[in-house]
């Protein structure tokens, strides 16, 4: 394989290792703080962290006092640690999101290391750049998201197994650590995405059919299984009922509702944009290596991608976060194909990146002008309908900062010399620029429309002076329960058997404000509507008469 420099511009001060570090830092840190938990995963996964900060749910995650079986506690432990370390500087929700920054940085690092071990050091930089440029990663890399930790440890496992032909003992230990941490971060999915890779390598890889490699893999597999059993064992002695709940959820729900045939078109659509631009170059790599697919450099990422795809289908969920484990193997395959692209294909890849982010940047500016000057009128009316009452402040400073970001991007792209890394650099720089521009111009609007803080504040006022120790709930999502707990100090309790002993009942309706109506003994004392159109949400509070 032809070798190339480690960096696209080793003699340029704007780029090289320092430039790549600055680019990664901008990508990871801009937009991470300065906003409250947004509805969806951001608020939902902050709930267990907030409980841990109060001394609850240290061994098993809780959301507003109720067990949460979605993920084991590793990510929440990390978020709580950051909140404690930086609580003097940042609000708890902002400090907790630094856990996502840590795991995203580790994922980029391990993907680059695995690429260097499998394909040569000249693929290390494109592997990191392509990961940064992946369309689906950017939003999840800036929210409270445990699947980022799973993705990170899948990459760590791949990096460890890539060492098996040369340093089997070290590689097996690193892969075992990655598998154990993937289990602590993701539960059964973490096991399914990592442990089978040991068996694939030891059985199917010709380079690993020797006593040293086989012994190292068996040792790593044994250590992974043994160390992974420690958390369930401790949980069994401390809270056996929670272990039983988690075990039931992991085994009974997995595969119980797989993806239906009519949903595969949606899966293909989601896959097509989420891991763009990785998959076209990955296919090119596989075509060039079609006669060597049993070598570890190809077998390992192929097996990892197939495991991730199989898990997505068996899980039956088309949530965007479930696609994250596909990024490490596809980034590896794409990085291997970058140096082999023909000149015309490489130029097209570069120009397509430039044109893509020019179009996206124009769309961001149009969305901002709809808020600032009510143009275009149709979009301005839609913005007002979705977020009624929103008022843009500081529009001049936003415009100046946005212009500065765009000018900087144009200058850097203009000075980017020709190299086989130019295409990946264009995608990474374009994605970072687009994210920074969106944060500067659109963050206030997103923060206004995606937060439950105004609802929770209004609810706290409605409950002021009342004995509100017990508030039952109907229709609330984990994200909403976590938000009410954090912002209003209210822990909504589930209704069991259509009955509750609580004196208050909090009801949530989406779009239709009359879907859920309690019995006549309940008197409505508060109502709050947020959003508009298809995003209308209605909250009502009842008091037992």
UniProtKB/TrEMBL annotation:
**Ranges in a coiled coil:** none
Keywords, ordered alphabetically: Membrane, Transmembrane, Transmembrane helix
What residue range is the signal peptide?
Answer: none
- Residue ranges spanning the membrane: these are 12-30, 74-91, 98-116, 122-139, 146-164, 176-205, 217-239, 270-289, 296-314, 320-341, 348-368, 396-414, 426-446
Q: Does the keyword Membrane apply?
A: yes
Asked if the record carries the keyword Membrane, the reply is yes
| Protein name in the entry | Glycosyltransferase RgtA/B/C/D-like domain-containing protein
User: Which organism is the protein's source?
Assistant: Aromatoleum anaerobium
Taxonomy, top ranks, is: Bacteria, Pseudomonadati, Pseudomonadota, Betaproteobacteria, Rhodocyclales
């Amino acid at each position: 394989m032809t070798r190339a420099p480690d960096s696209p511009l080793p003699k340029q001060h704007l780029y090289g290792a320092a430039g790549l570090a600055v680019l990664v830092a901008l990508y990871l840190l801009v937009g991470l703080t300065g906003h409250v938990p947004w509805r969806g995963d951001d608020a939902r996964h902050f709930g267990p962290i907030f409980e841990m900060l109060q001394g609850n749910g240290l061994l098993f995650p809780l959301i507003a006092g109720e067990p949460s079986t979605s993920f084991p506690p590793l990510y929440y432990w990390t978020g709580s640690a950051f909140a404690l370390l930086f609580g003097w500087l940042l609000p708890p929700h902002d400090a907790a999101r630094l856990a996502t920054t840590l795991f995203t940085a580790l994922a980029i690092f391990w993907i680059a290391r695995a690429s260097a071990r499998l394909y040569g050091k000249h693929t290390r930089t494109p592997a990191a750049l392509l990961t940064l440029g992946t369309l689906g990663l950017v939003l999840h890399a800036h929210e409270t998201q445990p699947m980022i930790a799973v993705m990170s440890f899948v990459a760590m496992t791949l990096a460890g197994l890539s060492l098996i032909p040369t340093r089997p003992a070290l590689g097996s230990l690193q892969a075992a650590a990655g598998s154990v941490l993937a289990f602590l971060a993701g539960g059964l999915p973490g096991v399914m995405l990592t442990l089978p890779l040991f068996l694939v390598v030891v059985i199917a890889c010709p380079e690993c059919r020797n006593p040293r490699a086989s012994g190292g893999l068996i040792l790593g597999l044994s250590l992974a299984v043994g160390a992974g059993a420690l958390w369930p064992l401790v949980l069994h002695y401390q809270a056996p009922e929670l272990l039983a709940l988690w075990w039931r959820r992991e085994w009974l729900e997995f595969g119980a509702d797989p993806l239906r045939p009519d949903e595969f078109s949606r899966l293909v659509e989601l896959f097509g944009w989420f891991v763009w631009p990785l998959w076209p170059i990955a296919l090119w790599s596989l075509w060039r290596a079609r006669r060597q697919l049993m070598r570890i450099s190809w077998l390992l990422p192929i097996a990892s991608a197939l495991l991730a795809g199989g898990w997505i289908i068996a899980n039956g969920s088309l949530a965007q976060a479930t696609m994250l484990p596909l990024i490490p193997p596809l980034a590896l395959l794409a990085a291997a194909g970058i140096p082999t692209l023909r000149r015309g294909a490489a130029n097209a890849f570069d120009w397509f990146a430039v044109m893509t982010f020019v179009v996206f940047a124009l769309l961001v500016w149009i969305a901002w002008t709809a808020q600032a000057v009510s143009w275009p009128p149709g979009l301005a009316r839609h913005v007002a309908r979705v977020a009624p009452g929103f008022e843009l402040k500081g529009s001049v400073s936003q415009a100046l900062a946005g212009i500065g970001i765009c000018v900087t991007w144009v200058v850097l792209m203009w000075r980017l010399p020709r190299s086989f890394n130019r295409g990946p650099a264009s995608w990474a720089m374009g994605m970072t620029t687009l994210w920074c521009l969106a944060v500067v111009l659109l963050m206030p609007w997103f923060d206004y429309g995606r937060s439950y803080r105004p609802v929770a504040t209004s609810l706290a006022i409605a409950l002021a002076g009342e004995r509100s120790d017990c508030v039952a709930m109907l229709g609330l999502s984990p994200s909403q329960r976590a938000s009410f707990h954090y912002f209003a100090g209210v822990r909504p309790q589930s209704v069991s058997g259509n009955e509750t002993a609580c004196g208050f009942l909090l009801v949530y309706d989406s779009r239709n404000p009359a879907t859920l109506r309690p019995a006549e003994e309940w008197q409505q004392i508060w109502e709050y509507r947020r959003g508009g159109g298809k995003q209308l949400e209605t909250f009502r509070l009842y008091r037992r008469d």
